[in-house]
Amino acid sequence: MNLIDMHGQKCGRLTPLDYVGGGKWLCLCICGNEATVHGVALRSGRTQSCGCFHKERSSQASLIDISGRRFGRLTVLCRAGTAKGWQPTWLCRCDCGQEVVVLGVNLRFDRTKSCGCFQQQQRRMRAKDVSGQVFGKLRAVRRAKNPMGNMRTRWLCQCSCGKTTIVTQKHLANGNTKSCGCLQERKGSENPNYDHEMPDENRIDRRLIQGYNEWTRKVYARDDYTCQICNHRGGNLASHHLDAYHWAKDKRILLSNGVTMCKGCHKAFHHVYGTHNNKRSQFIFFKATHKMKVATVSA
Q: Between vectors from CA 161 to CA 158 and to CA 167, what angle results, nearest 5°?
């Protein structure tokens, strides 16, 4: 492809000085700045300055003073500054009393008409009235003010235990919140999450036995807080049972049955071998495989 010589040609405000490769030219703008522009953009007229022309136009547009004018619920107080792209911004006061900074273009094209209170009002009008309805132990009394300033509808609720609490309508509807918190304070079979069908043996197996935390500390100290797979020291560690906690009950707090692993290696191990039925031989093979991978990468 033959190069089109553009030396000294006038392209808008730009004059090509030297070809710099890749189809691009080093140009001098009439404002004194230099810019590198593709030859196609110069010949087509897409680029006619170093950027100063756009800045001048934006600056001229920003000279239009709209202070005191109203746009929807907003009254423009004064110029606030300039946003990205040299767009002028304006400080406005909403009819609700809040002040907000808005792009001038959004005001002129009616894209922004309030500080956000109008959308919140519309949402509240569309929200279903659940006053008097019961959700678990909660009875919705009335809509509550939202201190977070977002558009979620919140309800003041009376719990059957006598306490009051504020809950979002979404959490009431989907059943995520059923009380003021008193349900979670119940223990054993009185707790709503209690599984009555689980055998007592399995329930006990899921609890940490006495001496477990001390066993974990001893395993970490013996291994110098270093992962026995990748040799990374410190960070997020896990005390791994060589013969699984689930089935090797007599080895649960046996020091020789524990090994230190970082969270990443521990997660990778269980991703390969699953949980509950793990054995010492799986760990030995997993460690050997990891060393082979490292050796291959190093070679």
A: 35
pLDDT single digits (tens) 11-27: 888 898 888 888 899 99
CA atoms within 13 A on the CB side of 1: 4
Instruction: Give the residue from 284, 248, 286 showing the smallest Cα distance to 267.
Output: 286
Give yes or no for residue 299 having a pLDDT over 50.
Answer: no
Least confident of 8-17, 21-30, 120-129, 272-281: 120-129
DSSP class of residue 3 equals P
For residue 279, is it within any domain? yes
Strands 87-94 and 74-83: antiparallel
> What's residue 144's pLDDT?
84
Give CA separation, 113 vs 88, 92, 105, 122, 126, in Å.
17, 10, 12, 13, 19
In a domain, 157, yes or no: yes
DSSP 8-state code for residue 190: G
Q: How far is CA 258 from CA 181, 237, 264, in A?
A: 38, 13, 17
Enclosing H/E stretch for 258: strand 258-262
Same domain, 82 and 46: no
Paired residues of 143 in beta bridges? 155
CA gap 275, 253 in Å, rounded: 18
- 38 burial (CB, 10 Å; 0-12 / 13-18 / 19+) is middle
Report the mean per-residue pLDDT for the chain. 83
Instruction: For 137-150, write each residue's pLDDT tens digit.
Output: 899 998 887 765 55
Query: How many angstroms separate the CA atoms of 74 and 95, rounded?
Result: 7
Domain holding 161, by residue range, is 130-173
Identify whether 198 is part of a domain: no
